[in-house]
Every structure is written in C-alpha cells, then in structure tokens.
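Need residues for this backbone.
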C-alpha cells in the first residue's frame, strides 16, 4: 500500500510563491493594491483578452457577472444540472431563477439541444460550465444566444488554460469566470478572475468589486492620492488581496507546465486502465483539455458498487471522489424549484457511474500505476 495518502487534488507551491508572499508582506500593502493590478495585467495577457478583474473567488466573479445582467424576478438562467452549487446560487443571489438542462454524454458539458428545449419568454441568459477542463460547445451556445437575444456568462472554474481552436477560454466579450481554489490548475490560496473584452462591462464590474467606490483604495493612500471618494453604486466586498495576487503571479508562470504534466498523467491513467471497460470524458477536435479532473465511468456491472469502490480505495490511501452531485439531488433545489432526480437522464447516468481519480502535477508515474492497479483489483 502507498505510504502516503494520494488526495484527489492538491496545490503545488514552491519557494517562488513563498518569496513573493514575504515580499508582499514586507511591502506595507497587503490588501487590494499594485500586485493585484500586476496579476490582472499578466492574466489578461496570458488569456489573450483585453481585461481581467481579480476577485476573492470564482463565485464572486459569477456574482458580479450575473448582477450586471440586471435580472428581474422571474427571469430565467439556463445552467447544467451537472455542476457545483455556486452556479445555481449566484443566479439566485442575482434575483433570477436557475433552470437546469441536461449535459452532453461525451463531454459532460451543457448540451445545446437540451438548452434550446428550455428556452422560453422568461429566459434571459445561458450559463455553461466547462466540466473538468473541457470546454462546452460554445459555438452552438453562442448561436442559440444570438438567435434568442440571450446573455452569456461562462463558468470556467476548472478551465484555466483550456483552449478551443488555439484560442484560450476567456477571450470573449461576455464575462468568463475562473477559479484559483487550491484544487484548481493554479491557485492564489483562494480567489478568482473575471475576463472580458467589453470595456464598459469591465469598468462597471471593477466599480462594483469594492463597495461601488469610484477610486481604487490603494491609490488613495499613496503620496499622490486624494482622501476623497464617492460611492456611485451599491457594490460588494469581492476584491483579491496583494498576498493572493503575489502567489497568483508565480503560479501563472508555471501554469502551462502544470497543464502539460496533467495531460501526461491522464495518458498514464488510460494506459494502465486500458484492459478495463471504463468510459471516459471525450476530448473533442480542436480542444486543448486542461485536465483539472480525471473522471472515469464505471460499466453497468459495477454501478451499484461505486460508493463501495471509493471507500475501498480510501482504505488503500487513494482519495477518489465524485464531482459533482447533480443539482437536482439536493434538498434545497428540490423544494425550491421542484427539481426531480429523473429529470436529466444523461446527468444522472454520468453521476451514478462517476469516479474522479487523483489529479495534480506532482503525481508520479508510479503513483498512477499504483492507483490503477488497486482499482483494477477491485473491479476485476
């Protein structure tokens, strides 16, 4: 048995991040400040977009993006059923009603055909999620949005570095929201980023990020700054800190290397598990998958044993998990929106078969072989 527990995910931090944090601490400015501005500039350059807004979580980025849509009571936003609670909760917080649609059986991302069936006079926006690092079918979803005059917001929490046709996810006019939570491909401790090519949108959201204040706080406190400010909108406290941004700047330098290692690890898994009848998330043509998650789908003969397999893997120091429990399985949404377990069959079929195996850049080939061998024994 492995001497060390192999978790589902863990951040990879080095001396560079440590030095950057110490430098930020000693700078005398540790909250929203010049490091945040530097991180935003470098992230926008990496994505290829015009504007990037650093916030304290992907949830905060989604909150801002949805708030900007000015949703009214009864306005509906279509989201995948196969996602984390934040996707639905931010719609609710913005005053809208989330409507779940089914996902594509191959990519596990929002299915445009399922979305079209949900569109009605109340629909205001579509909010796709790029599951595990694979992009949703944005070509089809953009066509739907244009056809029905709908807004788009992207939940790219797990897709930093993901590409379609050589273009990174996040290079669009509408808001795209990223996560830097410790289990993601890069981290800032916790945090998020909103990207857009729309200058007016960026300026509105930048204002809302910190209480609707018309001046950046750190610029008011330097030698040339003015003490005077005005609140011009009812904003939020969503800003990133310079400490987090200092980590993010160093992590961003390593991101492509991290993602290439993740791609290699995914290849090792498929090599070592090739003799078993597992299903996998498909990688579509012209896609660069950032491999935030490595999901497998159990065959029919093992579906009822899924939870037992996960427990037995943990006994072998392997931290397998399930991402995500569909939204229509949770009591709050069932009660509030009358979502039923049998309403999104593709999502439910994926969920019942799903196991996510450990995935992070410091996994060794021997670790992957050990995980595959133990899983093979259990499934034989």
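Answer:
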């Amino acid at each position: 048995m492995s001497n060390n527990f192999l978790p589902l995910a863990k951040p990879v931090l080095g001396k560079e991040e440590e030095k950057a944090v110490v430098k930020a601490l000693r700078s005398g400015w540790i909250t929203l400040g010049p490091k945040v501005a530097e991180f935003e500039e470098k992230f926008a350059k990496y994505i290829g977009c015009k504007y990037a807004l650093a916030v304290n979580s992907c949830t905060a980025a989604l909150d801002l993006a949805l708030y900007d849509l000015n949703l009214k009571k009864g306005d509906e936003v279509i989201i995948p059923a196969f996602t984390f609670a934040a996707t639905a909760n931010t719609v609710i917080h913005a005053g809208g009603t989330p409507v779940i649609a089914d996902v594509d059986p191959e990519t596990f991302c929002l299915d445009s055909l399922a979305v079209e069936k949900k569109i009605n006079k109340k629909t205001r926006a579509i909010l796709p999620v790029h599951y595990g690092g694979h992009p949703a079918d944005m070509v089809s979803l953009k066509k739907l949005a244009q056809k029905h005059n709908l807004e788009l917001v992207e939940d790219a929490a797990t897709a930093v570095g993901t590409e379609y046709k050589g273009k990174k996810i996040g290079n669009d006019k509408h808001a795209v929201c990223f996560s830097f939570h410790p289990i993601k491909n890069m981290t800032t401790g916790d945090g998020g980023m909103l990207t857009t090519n729309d200058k007016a949108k960026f300026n509105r959201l930048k204002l809302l990020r910190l209480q609707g204040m018309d001046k950046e706080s750190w610029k008011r406190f330097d030698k040339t700054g003015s003490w005077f400010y005005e609140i011009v909108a009812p904003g939020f406290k969503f800003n990133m800190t310079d400490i987090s941004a200092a980590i993010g700047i160093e992590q961003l330098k390593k991101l492509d290397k991290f993602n290439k290692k993740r791609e290699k690890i995914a290849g090792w898994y498929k090599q070592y598990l090739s003799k078993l009848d597992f299903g996998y998330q498909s990688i579509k043509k012209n896609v660069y998958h950032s491999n935030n998650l490595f999901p497998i789908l159990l065959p029919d003969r093992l579906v009822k044993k899924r939870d037992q397999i996960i427990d037995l893997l943990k006994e072998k120091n392997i931290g397998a998990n399930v991402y995500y429990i569909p939204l229509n399985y949770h009591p709050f949404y069932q009660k509030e929106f009358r979502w039923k377990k049998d309403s999104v069959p593709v999502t439910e079929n994926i969920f019942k078969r799903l196991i996510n195996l450990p995935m992070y850049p410091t996994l060794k080939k021997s670790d992957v072989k050990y995980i595959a061998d133990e899983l093979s024994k259990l499934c034989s």
